[in-house]
Amino acid sequence: MTLEVAEGELVSIVGPSGCGKSTLLRCIAGLISPTSGRVTLDGTPVDGVPDGLAVVFQDYSRSLLPWLTVRDNVALPLRRRGKSKAERRAAADEALASVGLPDAGRKYPWQLSGGMQQRVSIARALAYRPSLLLMDEPFGSVDAQTREDLEDLVLRVHRTGGMTILLVTHDIDESVYVGDRVVVLGRNPGHIRAEIDVTLPPERDQIATRADAEFVRLRAEVGRLVRGAASGPVAA
Q1: CA 218, CA 182: separation in Å to the nearest integer?
Q2: How far is residue 235 CA from its own chain's centroid?
Q3: What are the phi and psi torsion angles at 135 (to 5°)?
Q4: Per-domain residue ranges for the chain?
Q5: Pairing relation of β-strands 40-41 and 44-45?
Q6: Spatial separation of the C-alpha atoms in residues 177 and 150, rounded to whole Å
Q7: DSSP structure class, residue 131
Q8: Which InterPro entries is this protein grouped with (predicted)?
Q9: Pairing verdict, β 181-186 and 191-197
Q10: Interacting residues of 155 by C-beta distance below 8 A, sequence separation 6+
């Protein structure tokens, strides 16, 4: 597959299970090497984990360190930025407040629910202030209301911080709601079936946007492609 993502773009990636969505993110993150071809970031080949990159994994229980407090988990990557202890603490507290956990800093991950732990993982990525944020099914373990709140948080962070975001999701509605563009992957072998520009206003609302006729049209188009209604790669 060939995929280009512009600086500051928010791209949703959807597709059936086993088509390579998570593998694609891991290649971009430099965690695994592609068997052929190459990945470049700002024109530089990726041959390890790049600076300025953060990843929110689907399995939050394996990405948080149980012996560190929530605040220390969030602050941990900031050592790489050369931040002082006071700066790390302040950034961690700000990030935790942004995901609705202002009072959780002194707790340990195992004292929190699964959804709260995933919010800690998101807070850790946001505290790092990456130029490129990769998110692999980041909201799969939270309740519906929290999921909507976190979708809006990602949109707000994207709008105000200008970071580039790639979001892998199985939720078709979510892919349209948050994305500037939706990339639909097919499998056997993994390939790009379609790329769909999301022609919705940048300011979005969970109720009004989802009731918009254009949202309904885009959701139906993405759903048809994901479910294999079209055969083979399709040009959007």
Answers
A1: 10
A2: 25
A3: -130, 120
A4: 1-52+130-236, 64-129
A5: antiparallel
A6: 12
A7: S
A8: AAA+_ATPase, ABC_transporter-like_ATP-bd, ABC_transporter-like_CS, ABC_transporter_ATP-bind, P-loop_NTPase
A9: antiparallel
A10: 10, 178, 204
Q: What is the number of alpha carbons within 13 Å of residue 225 lying toward its C-beta?
A: 27
> Look-up: residue for tokens 């990843």?
55
Number of DSSP helices (H) and strands (E) in the chain, helices first: 8, 8
What is the amino acid identity at position 149? D
76-117 residue pLDDT tens: 988 878 788 899 999 999 999 988 899 999 999 999 988 888
What homologous superfamily does CATH list for 1-52+130-236?
Answer: P-loop containing nucleotide triphosphate hydrolases (3.40.50.300)
Residues contacting 129, CB < 8 A, separation 6+: 161, 163
Average pLDDT over every residue of 186-191:
85
Calpha distance 12→185 (Å, rounded): 11
Structure token pair of residue 218: 């885009």
Phi, psi of 172 (to 5 degrees): -65, -45
Of 232, 231, 230, 219, nearest to 14 by C-alpha is 219
Judge residue 74's burial from the number of C-beta atoms within 10 Å of its C-beta, 0-12 exposed, 13-18 middle, 19 or more buried. buried
Q: Which residues of 98-107 are buried (b: 16+ CB within 10 A; e: fewer)?
A: bbebeebbee
User: How far apart are alpha carbons 138 and 169 in whole angstroms?
Assistant: 8
The tens digit of pLDDT for each residue in 9-57 reads: 999 999 988 888 989 999 999 999 888 889 998 888 888 888 888 998 8
Distance CA 54, CA 129 (A): 8
